Amino acid sequence: MAFRRFLDEKGFIDIATPMLTKSTPEGARDYLVPSRVHPGQFFALPQSPQLFKQLLMVAGYDRYYQITKCFRDEDLRADRQPEFTQVDIETSFLGEEQITALMEEMIRSVFKTALAVDLPNPFPRITHAEAMRRYGSDKPDLRVTLELTEVTDAVADVAFKVFSGPATSGGRVAALRVPGGASLTRGEIDGYTEFVKIYGARGLAYIKVNDATKLNEEGLQSPIVKNLHEAALDEAVAGILERTGAASGDLIFFGADRAKVVNDSLGALRLKIGTDLKLVAEGWRPLWVVDFPMFEYDEDNQRWSACHHPFTSPKDGHEALMETDPGACLAKAYDLALNGWEMGGGSVRIHRSEVQERVFQALGIGPEEQQAKFGFLLDALKYGAPPHGGLAFGLDRIVTMMAGAESIRDVIAFPKTQRAQCLLTDAPSDVDEKQLRELHIRLRQKVETQVEVGKS
Q1: Which of 72, 147, 215, 350 has the highest CB neighbour number within 10 Å of its CB?
Q2: Phi, psi of 62 (to 5 degrees)
Q3: pTM, rounded to two decimals
Q4: Which residues of 291-382 form beta strands (DSSP E)?
């Protein structure tokens, strides 16, 4: 009600968009619904009302919102469900700063109304690049007081290949200083080493700073500095101690690998150590993360994919980079994080059809596929779309945080399990052969099983 009251008062119109729509697989997998009257064809349940709300802006509805169900067939975690509730918002003629300011006002109003909590005014803002550099995450938990320190350039010339290899081949070397961490036992350090392997790290180098004034085995305890005979390594360690601000009694962990592996592993380690050692402040710590990359490279499919979604506008002056250097192209995209959870995300949209076509081209979607999947959007943009943008908040996640729960399953009526099952109704379940025939569907798995049984 707090969300609705705020949006109603600001002139937003609640409009219901379709639940049965077209499959345009460009993110998570769709839930498909077979059509009885169109044999062999399928509807998809919406992952979000994204395209419909953009069409509403083209049609002249300047301010739209909807509290709606969305569906994504993806692997589940504590903050995800196959069906979830979204506060979906779109508005015309507002830029990034105006949209985020309005949404920030709304979140402050909701927290004040529901919890009597006064959130900061304004919320802090950092770029995506800074978030990854300092926290290894695009949704950092600012309650944890630890930060990463960039040391890639400091170790580029050392003979220690674990560091110099990634540092000279486009990877990253980062340090995480743990105040008072020199008291950690070898067993505890080994436990953290196993923990980072979950995130792809091959190991976890460390230095115990017993005496910060002595750059030798007496002052520094570590397999790295056992034999500090190399001048470059000696200089590098001195530089690392200075950059991290390490003092006697501290411990420094290192991540050295591809940037993604270092960010994922040290970002997770930062949270775990912060929690274990009680280096966590109290309260609510909202944060805007802005200037996301437009594209990220998909190693599995050897192509570029959209970091947010393919309808996000590039930053002014970055359009040419879509063809020449997609990895350097930034987007007019923004996420709102709170205590380590992504509350919501959005962007200013592309409102010119020729720019949208160029984005599709950068993603490897050719003209014919563009027309088949997104022709209705491209045609609408050609009629003259207003500049527009919006944002969507995960209502279940917000309620989870407000309630102090650990999982969104704790605040949803009839949630699914981590295997996307409803144990109450035993769904998903088999359907009878008559229903399948009406939908012109034959189950390949059952047919193959029967064939195998016949052979045996």
Answers
A1: 350
A2: -65, -30
A3: 0.90
A4: 295-298, 303-306, 333-338, 341-348
